[in-house]
Amino acid sequence: MIDRLIRKIKEKNNPTVVGLDPRLSMIPNFMKEASYERYGKTPKAVAEMFYSFNKEIIDAVWDIVPAVKPQIAMYEQYGHEGIKAYIDTVKYAKEKGLIVIGDIKRSDIASTAEAYAEGHIGRVEIEEENYDIYGTDSITLNPYLGYDSIEPYMKHCKDHDKGLFILVKTSNPNSGEIQDLEVDGEKLYERVGKLVSKWGEELVGEAGYSSIGAVVGATHPQQAERIRKIMPRTYFLVPGYGAQGGKAEDLKGYFNEDGLGAIINSSRGIIAAYKKEEYNSEFSEKDFGKAARQAAIDMREDLNRVVAL
Predict the structure, then answer these.
(1) CATH number where 207 lies
(2) What local confidence, expressed as pLDDT, does residue 85 receive?
(3) Global pTM?
């Protein structure tokens, strides 16, 4: 998986992943009205508008970004209709040639992890038949339960060319309450980083990076430089750019000297760009896809100022 992602990043000269994390407040009014008229004010209406919204965003950016990252919680809250919108979004993004990272952040004991793994990156077997249910290329995981909660996913990474991004240092303000605790003279996130690096050794691709990556928030640049030294061949998925305060100038230490090693996420900064002051004078809500494209181009140029691929 990691080699496919790197090829896309190089091809598009862009280390950006677009977070497809729609909220009802982001959906343009004309789309809301059309869905409500058809389905009433129901979960089905929201799911339908989320999928339509995502399709237009994907149509607007697929040729300039390498990957998208739908956050499953935004869909799960609407029940089976929302899950269908998530699955349909993944399928449509893959039809457009995008790498899809399912942001699911699962963590559980081994037997339950096996079920999550089979559903999200493996195959679900029903007698002699098997099915790829969600279709994502990679997913995010929480390592709190240790290796036996991660191991069930590893087989599917090998067998089906999939990947993982495991939480190491997250972008939320209170991450340090646990992640910065001292453990035998080092921070807990450093210990976790070493473990993730070790787990990924058997899945290193042709480009020299592992398909077992790490989530490292853009709001912690000093810690990220330390993590990069600990994990030189691990790809970072970096949330927190833009809306959460991360700046391009803060991100240089996340990359290696080859210009690779990190893919930077932006969610509402791109998909809700039409609501931002710098774009809403040029783009109406009906042009939300065009606004998203311009925001993605601006982000690419901003990143390329400090990181040369």
Answers:
(1) 3.20.20.70
(2) 98
(3) 0.96
